[in-house]
Amino acid sequence: MRKQNGFSMLEVLVTMMIVSFGLLGIAGIIANGLKANSSSYARSQASWFANDIIDSMRANRVTAELPAKPYDLLPTASAPSGTTVASTDLSNWRAALASALPSGTGGVAVDTTTKKVTVIVQWDDSRAAGGVSTQQFTVETRL
Predict the structure, then answer these.
(1) Structural domain count, the chain
(2) Fewer beta carbons within 10 Å, N or C terminal of the chain?
(3) What is the DSSP annotation of 79-113?
C-alpha cells in the first residue's frame, strides 16, 4: 500500500471554488447594504429639510398665514426670487435640497383657513432602486 501525502490538485480547485462563491456572496451582501444605507441617508436628509422649512415658517408665522400664501411653492416650479423673508427662506431651502440630495427639489402648500402645511421633498433614488426612482417624503403639520 502506498501512503497518500498532501492534497490532490482537484481537491484544491474544488476548495478554491467553494471559497470564491462564498466571497462573492459576501460582496453582494455588502453592496446591497451600501445601497440601502445611501437610500436611508437620503430619506433622513429629506426629513430634516422638511422640518427645516416648517421651522422657518413658524419663525415667520404672521407672513406664513397671510391669505396671499407667500410660502406656497410647487415642487416643479422654480425657486422664488425676491427679498422678502418667505422668498429668501424658500430659495435657500431649495438650494440646500439641490446640493444635499440627488435631483433634490421640494414644494410647500399652505391652507390658510386650517393653517395646515404640507411639505413635499423629492429626490432621485435610482442608485438604491436600480433604475429611475423618484422618491417623495411628505410632512403635514399645522402652524
Answers:
(1) 1
(2) N
(3) PP-SSSHHHHHHHHHHHHHHHHSTT-EEEEEEETT
